Amino acid sequence: MKKVVTLLVMAVILAAAVAIPIVANANGGEDSPTVAIPMVASVNSGTDSAVLYAGQDMDVGDVRVSYDGTDNLTVEFVVVSDNWALAETHVHVAATLEDIPQTKKGNPIPGKFDYSAEYIPADRTASDTLVIAVGQLEEGDSIYIAAHAEIVKLDADAQIIQEESAWGDGQDFEGANWATYIVFVYEVE
Predict the structure, then answer these.
(1) Domain assignments of the chain as residue spans, ordered by start
(2) Within the chain, which residues score under 70 in pLDDT?
């Protein structure tokens, strides 16, 4: 319940910052944080996905985005590599790249992203789903999303044996690291 309340407070702050209506979705439970985040994607494309890369070049899963054709978009982190699990997720959605929290040198700051979830112990189900109310969109609208995760490799006793940072594959931030962001564009097909 504490996660849901925290996420709802962050949703209100983001709504004021980007002036897009945000609606909480009560379908998620304590193990599945569900909040509303404004994002856009193609109406008829079904599910779009970006590879979730850990440690710069290890494909450990996907960041999946789907749009229901009306108001709701779903963003899901899915880890499919054996013995890896989500420890934390961080998501920031913005109308411009500059609105994603970054250092002066252009490195993103996941700890300042508007949406985050932590899994203690690490989530072996390896999935984190966010349902997003995007409201009315016009064709050609685009939104920038930074999708970051901390993932861990677990041994047979569920003990952490390796930790990695992971990003949804996209375009490089300007900074001197390997962080990336995804641009979603609303299109009517």
Answers:
(1) 2-185
(2) 1-47, 67-70, 72-73, 123-127, 132-138, 186, 188-189
* pLDDT confidence of residue 113: 92
Helix (H) or strand (E) holding 182, with range, is: strand 180-185
CA dihedral 156, 158, 163, 165 (to 10 degrees): 110
Q: Which is nearest to 161 in space by CA: 171, 151, 170? A: 151
pTM assigned to the model? 0.72
The CB density around residue 60, as the number of other CB atoms within 10 Å, is 24
d(CA 138, CA 116): 28
Per-residue pLDDT, 108: 97
The three-class DSSP label of residue 98 is: helix
Helices (H), 19-172: none
CA atoms within 13 A on the CB side of 45: 18
CA distance 53 to 167: 5
Token digits of residue 90: 């961080």
Q: Output the six-digit token pair for 62.
A: 């996907």
Show the tokens assigned to 168: 């949804």
Length of the chain: 189
Tokens of 71: 């108001």
